[in-house]
Automatic annotation (TrEMBL):
Signal peptide: 1-25
Pfam families registered for this protein in UniProt: NMT1_2
Matches recorded under PROSITE patterns: PROKAR_LIPOPROTEIN (PS51257)
PANTHER family per UniProt: ABC TRANSPORTER SUBSTRATE-BINDING PROTEIN, ALIPHATIC SULFONATES-BINDING PROTEIN-RELATED
Organism per entry: uncultured Nocardioidaceae bacterium
The protein's name in its UniProt record: ABC transporter, substrate-binding protein (Cluster 10, nitrate/sulfonate/bicarbonate)
Keywords annotated in UniProt: Signal
Tagged with keyword Signal: yes
The keyword Glycoprotein belongs to this UniProt entry's keyword annotation: no
Domain of life: Bacteria
Length: 332
């Protein structure tokens, strides 16, 4: 157990150090916008992850609304397994726009990545599920086996540590059990009995419940309602590409309006993209703990907890987290 704990802590430390090094290396070599000599991008790579938490972007991808709004820009879409991988891609210059959870975004910001949130994508509760009937709480889970999630600095990892602090008195009590795993693989590993628990997101958590899983944690009970995913980019890119930023915010707002006002139509589009029956998708997008809203919320609450357990060094100011867009006027 001790070696595993050391590995998790080391991976966090090494990851943060790598982000800091990449962020420093990218400074001064980016857009050159401060001197007014930048040129608008002709290619934009947008990264997202599997799951319903990216429904707004999946609709945009399926219907090519970004491409239609930006006909002179070569838009590409990349699916990745974790927010930390997306963060590294943006810092390294391989991606221009990313979508992900609060955890990797705040870790990057704290490490010196000059980026901000353009818009929220949704609010969703995140579940920690188990298939083991002998595990009814975190005390039972401690030492019982691996706990899968996208990465040790994912929003899911923050949720687990908050639960561990409240139930076990130590936020890092379960760190030795964390294993990095993409959501689809995590579902199969949980159902197959290869892991003790899986902290995931819609639609994967509902799929696990349908297979007989039991919920051990609910992020809304720990942090109140909060943003699950948002879209973000670096400051120099945003300053040099205001049209891209404006259209992205609009595209997300339009997709969220479809998801909220026309869930059946949205489910049909998502079914084609995700390979899930439309009826199942519609049930998911209309769940009571799912809301497709543009305003980011809960960032400060997560940041305060992350600072308290050493995941970040300080809580950022609101203006340092969000661009001034139509979506972020009431961001928190």
């Amino acid at each position: 157990m001790m070696s595993l704990t050391k590995n998790v802590r080391t991976s966090l430390a090494v990851g943060t150090t790598a982000v800091m090094a990449m962020a420093l290396a990218s400074c001064g070599g980016g857009g050159g916008s401060a001197s007014g000599d930048c040129e608008p991008a002709t290619k934009v790579a947008i990264a997202y992850q599997p799951g319903l938490g990216y429904a707004s972007l999946l609709i945009a991808k399926q219907e090519k609304t970004v491409e239609k709004a930006l006909p002179d820009v070569d838009v590409t879409w990349q699916e990745m397994n974790s927010g930390s991988a997306i963060r590294d891609g943006i810092v390294g210059g391989n991606l221009q726009v990313g979508a992900g959870g609060i955890g990797p975004f705040l870790v990057g910001l704290d490490a010196g990545v000059d980026w901000k949130v353009l818009s929220g994508l949704n609010n969703m509760s995140l579940y920690l599920n188990t298939m083991d009937s002998s595990i009814t709480n975190l005390e039972d889970l401690e030492g019982a086996g691996s706990i899968a999630m996208p990465a040790p600095d994912s929003i899911q990892a923050v949720v687990l540590r908050k639960g561990a602090e409240e139930e076990l008195g130590d936020a890092k009590a379960l760190d030795s059990q964390i294993v990095s795993m993409g959501h689809p693989d995590g579902v199969q590993a949980l159902i197959g009995g290869q892991i003790a628990a899986h902290l995931t997101s819609p639609p994967f958590q509902a799929q696990e419940i349908d297979e007989g899983a039991t919920k051990l944690l609910d992020s809304y009970q720990l942090f109140d309602e909060h943003t699950f995913n948002s879209i973000f980019t670096k400051t120099d890119f945003a300053e040099c590409n205001p049209k891209v930023v404006e259209e992205l915010v609009t595209v997300v707002a339009d997709a969220n309006a479809m998801l909220t006002d026309e869930p059946a139509q949205a489910a049909k589009v998502l079914s084609e993209e995700m390979g899930i029956p439309a009826a199942e998708v519609e049930e998911q997008v209309t769940s009571e703990d799912v809301a497709f809203v543009n305003t980011p919320t809960g960032f400060a609450t997560f940041a305060e907890f992350m600072e308290s357990i050493g995941m970040i060094q300080e809580v950022p100011e609101t203006g340092d987290m969000f661009f001034d867009t139509e979506a972020t006027a009431d961001a928190s």
